[in-house]
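ugh ok fine here u go
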Amino acid sequence: MKNGIIIILLVCIQLKGYSQISIEGIACSTDTSVISFANVSIKNKAIGACANERGYFKFVIDSACEKDTIIISSIGYINYSFTIESLSIKDSVFYLEPANYELKAAVIINNAPSVDKIIKHVLRNYGKNYPRSGYQAKAFFQDIVYNYAIEAKQDIARITEAAITMQEFGVQTTKEVKFRVDELRNS
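structure:
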């Protein structure tokens, strides 16, 4: 009986120390239009979520991450970042500034090289263009399945997200590329 009470007390103490933080909001452009499917993640961690088509996102993290930085990003916008501990209840709309990309001028060549010359040049430089030594990369994958039924209650039927690690051994080896799924989440 004493052992049972001690175990219950230990479990209660551990549960008391474990709490979660819910982060939710809407990603908008500075002109107040929503940013559909913006990426929301914790800097340098494989934890995050994706906004829906209306810019809304929500995810729950452990309170141990409260000093970490959240990054909201989307193609065509400057990343918006803030610390979790600086977040207040009134912060529910996050405004991202549009990014201005400057492209270099295109050069049109009158006497372009033939296809044969281009392919020979590519083959000569193959070793320079591909890594000879191994490397490791981390990536975030997301697959969204839409529900196009006429009377559907939700626009999105399923979202699958994964954090993966890829190991490449270089062009000089016969080893195949290895993939590892670090985290997988279906909704």
